[in-house]
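Work through this protein:
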Amino acid sequence: MKAEDLKPDKILRGPIFPEPVQIIVCIPMGDAVELIAKGLNTSLVYEPILTSDQLATLETTPETEPFDGDPLRFRLAVEAMRLALAFEYDPYFSLSIARVDPLPHQLEAVYQYFMALRRIRFLLADDPGAGKTIMAGLLLKSTTAPRWGACPPIVRQGRRQNHARQKKESCPT
């Protein structure tokens, strides 16, 4: 790095400074340069006099930021921000990204009863085929509470059958 490259507001990194610093003023002093810089982490002011050998050990930020980031990660970050803000503008946003077509009674249950309460404490029970799984899915997509869980009866029935089968197999005949 040369003394001509040192301009105010540039960020310097190197073994001379314990943290990245932002240049405030650069004063030429013959072969050396007096640098007044502020630490980015601690806001401490550094005033070293640097020789050309010491300047060679420093790195600076580029004039323009490079656009060499991963485009898939950028798109993922933008999508995450969009989803985080979407519920503020559209309370039915979870419907637009769901792969199901809920029925009117399911929408009414989720959005007019469940979501209207500060604390959601419900036992979701209805006739077979009434769409309890869809209602639970809509509720899970609409809330930010991480402690939700749904266990359909078929799972409990399967566990009971496996337990009975294992018990039967372990008994000597």
